[in-house]
Amino acid sequence: MTDVDFLKLAIRESLKATDGNKFGAVIAKDGKIISCEHNLTEEENDPTSHAEIVAIRKACKELGTKNLDNCTLYSSAEPCFMCLTAAAWAHISKIVYNKPRAEFSHVDYHTMNFTIHDLNSYFDKTLEIVEIKEL
Q: pLDDT at residue 2 above 60?
């Protein structure tokens, strides 16, 4: 599967979210899906249950490790700062996303004036970040 294929899967997964925050995420390694999740903040009454966080938790359990070295996180939208930081802490190598946060004005991102590309400098640009707009 290609980055576009995994990203399309994350977008399809986002449609499963029951509230207006329809976000999905996939974590893959060596061309295989490790986890595929959607936003569960409403179902779990947990503001940290973003699709990316849920996918990271599941991938860590699936692989039996807290380090997701050589894994790629595919997200239907630009991850928030919490999700970006979790990806960095999990040692995810690459993030691929579809829509920039600026397109989600209905979601309170608190800091719309920064992007994950800006913040990646604080992680010494250890994360490869790719935006794929056209699918």
A: yes
Residue numbers annotated as active site? 52
Give 88: exposed, middle or buried? Use CB within 10 Å, 0-12, 13-18, 19+. Answer: middle
Residues 13-29 pLDDT 10s = 999 988 777 899 999 99
Exposed, middle or buried by CB within 10 Å (0-12, 13-18, 19+), for 68? buried
Element (H, E) at 34: strand 32-38
Taking the whole predicted model, whether its pTM rises above 0.70 is answered as yes
**Number of C-alpha atoms within 13 angstroms, CB side, residue 3?**
17
The pair of structure tokens assigned to 117 is 């590309």
Q: Which residues contact 52 (CB under 8 A, 6 or more apart)?
A: 23, 25, 73, 75, 79, 83, 86, 87
| Residues facing 96 on adjacent strands | 74, 130
The answer to whether residues 89 and 55 touch, using CB atoms and an 8 Å cutoff, is no
